[in-house]
Design goal:
Its cofactor is dipyrromethane. One of its GO terms (molecular function) is hydroxymethylbilane synthase activity. Tetrapolymerization of the monopyrrole PBG into the hydroxymethylbilane pre-uroporphyrinogen in several discrete steps. Pathway: Porphyrin-containing compound metabolism; protoporphyrin-IX biosynthesis; coproporphyrinogen-III from 5-aminolevulinate: step 2/4; Porphyrin-containing compound metabolism; chlorophyll biosynthesis. The chain is α/β, with parallel strands linked by helices. The chain has three domains: about 120 residues, Periplasmic binding protein-like II (D-Maltodextrin-Binding Protein, domain 2), CATH 3.40.190; about 80 residues, Periplasmic binding protein-like II (D-Maltodextrin-Binding Protein, domain 2), CATH 3.40.190.10; about 90 residues, Porphobilinogen deaminase, C-terminal domain (Double Stranded RNA Binding Domain). It is about 35% helix and about 25% strand. The strands form three sheets. The chain has a five-stranded mixed sheet, with helices on both faces. A five-stranded mixed sheet has the order 7-6-8-5-9, sandwiched between helices. The chain has a three-stranded antiparallel sheet with strand order 11-12-13. Strand 11 and strand 12 form a beta hairpin. Helix 8 runs parallel beside helix 9. The longest helix has 17 residues. About 45% of the residues are buried.
Length: about 325
Amino acid sequence: MTISASTPTIRIGSRKSQLALIQTYWVQEKLEKNFPNITFEVHKMSTQGDKILDVALAKIGDKGLFTKELELGMLQNETDLAVHSLKDLPTNLPEGLILGCVTERENPADALVLHEKLKDKQLETLPEGAVIGTSSLRRLAQLRYHFPHLEFKDVRGNLNTRLAKLDAGEYDALILAFAGLHRLGMSDRIHQIIPPEISLHAVGQGALGIECRAGDNNILNLLKSLEHTATAQRCYAERAFLRELEGGCQVPIGVNTQIEGEQLTLTGLVASLDGKKLVKDIVTGATADAEQIGIELAQKLRKQGAQEILDQILAEINRS
């Protein structure tokens, strides 16, 4: 791997949240280990999504909600790369920036976290009217489809804030990403890992995406040491699926990907907000054709009514 001898200190952009910093420091540590002669500095930034905590995500727009400020930092040469939870990174990046690396994925599943009074329950045994906290329209739509007897309430804030609201009794349960809880050392709070038959996960969930300037070969060469090929193939298929449907992070689109040998299987769905309409299908193909698999699945679902569902959802969000 060729790295210019004149490479200065490398500046890594990160959100200020606890989870974002844990993820960024992990990347910093790996790069320092791989390139001990280079200095890597973390630059902390606040994004729009971090500042607006009293409005549902779907109502404040989702294109770059957690990434725009980090991207400006790179475009203005204040930083050299940025670490994102890949699920937060839009599928269409600003001109001049690229997804330089996808790291090995944690379990991408959603997880159920319960209030102490319901600790012996699982999703299937929660009592009628139990209040479930989630800020994700994807989770909301799928859970309404499977469990119409439960109540759902928006929850914002970082992970510690959400858990405090749960423990205070504002919610009976929360649906959170397994990966975030695990990275924060809170796996003991998980009561159930939700199977994909109930909740397909978000595009890119569980993986880190490292963004950098296009054509910055020094940085791209550094990032090659962190790339995890199988995760990247899975996530490229998922992101192509989302991009083809022109759905943002806050639209009820769920996925699941599996690789066996040289074959990649992508499952995807689009659901209505009330959970009453759901279209779901599967496409399998060669791992080398990951993006084409995503495009093919999107086109398949569109023929089954996915576009009508998405159009209706966007109209509802714009009216609210």
